[in-house]
Amino acid sequence: MQPRPQHGFHPVFCTIVPPHVLDKLSQADDPGLSGPARRTLEGDAARRTRRQMTTLVPSVPTVATGTESDKPERVLYDCRHGTRLPGFKVRSEGEQPTRDASVNRAYAGLGATFELLLTAYGRRSIDGNGLPLIGSVHYDEQYNNAFFDGEQMVFGDGDGEIFLDFTVAIDVIGHELTHGLTQYTANLSYFGQSGALNESMSDVFGSLVKQYSLGQTADQADWLIGAGLLAPRVQGKALRSMKAPGTAYDDDVLGKDPQPASMEDYIHTTDDNGGVHLNSGIPNRAFYLLATALGGNAWERAGRLWFDVLTGDELSGDADFSDFARLTVEAAKDRYGEGDELEAVRKAWSEVGVPSA
């Protein structure tokens, strides 16, 4: 099969907390809860619009490239609760930890993501050429999100009532940086099923960063995205569950986790770019099923297949779930032949109702 050409370079604005969660929170009777959520939604919408306006014409990356080194090049900034990026430089690569735990957690998370990509897949940073990894902490006041804007990571401190500091979850850092990995490879469109695949790739590799850093096997992992982000008052475990989409939280303020676990319950909507944070639960569960069926370390065989497809030049920017599933089957054949891996891939997609033939 001939590789599909990638049409331009389209960095997008991607947040870890979906708009539907913030929208629900913004309707709370308590202004202490609704106020920060509304401000976060408004700020995200403005930044998303600016990002779209600057990427109407396909372009090439403008950020500086790094060197082909086996060491990351990290730079951390402090926004000091402002919104001007990147903020004030507080820690560079190789410098000692600061007194700010948020800075140190972000530094470690950027490094863990770099290490997974290099050690497991031989890739130097998200662009493959040692791109510096930049992060800004303490963004805005009571900002209930973290995002990748096409060039860097940004972390809010949360409102302390619903969300805590967004640097506490290493998978959130891995998730957002994977948007950069996707941006530099398959460049999946951020709408509909291709957008849900974009989100799912970030959940998959975010979870793998967490598992790798903790030394967990697929069976030992919790398969939660954003565990530790929810404040004690919230009835929930995390933002999303890859093992059981739709069960991450059930709270009187946030509502119930709406993610579907199979195509039977696929959500057709125009909100959230066609439900990218909702329907991502379907390919998420397929990956969980594959990883646990194969056993061992999920970043090895299961993660290798997903990485092969993401970086293999055959995944088109507007791919749907079945396109991706078919390519994972082909990747399993190419890498492992007619073995257990191939059968496990087919079975995983079948269980979530996505055709892979």
**Radius of gyration, rounded?**
19 Å
Widest sheet: strand ordering: 1-5-6-4-2-3
Order of helices and strands: EHHEEHEEEHHEEEEHHHHH
Helical residues, percent: 40-55%
Distance between the termini: 15 Å
| Oligomer kind | single chain
Let me know the average pLDDT.
92
* Record field, number of beta strands: 10
Give a quick account of the main beta sheet: strands, pairing sense, barrel closure. 6 strands, mixed
Treating each run of at least 4 consecutive H or I residues as one helix, how many helices? 10
Structural class: alpha+beta
Which regions are unreliable across 5 or more consecutive residues at pLDDT < 50? 1-7, 54-66
Strand content: 5-15%
What is the overall silhouette? globular
Q: Would you kindly provide a written description of the structure presented here, covering whatever features stand out?
A:
- This protein has 357 residues and is of the alpha+beta class.
- The chain is built from 10 helices and 10 strands.
- It has a 6-stranded mixed β-sheet with strand order 1-5-6-4-2-3, covered by helices on one side. A two-stranded antiparallel ribbon has the order 7-8. Strands 9-10 form a two-stranded antiparallel ribbon.
- A hairpin with a 3-residue loop joins strand 9 and strand 10.
- Helix 3 (101-121) packs across helix 5.
- The radius of gyration is 19 Å and the shape is globular.
- Mean pLDDT is 92; it is low at 1-7 and 54-66.
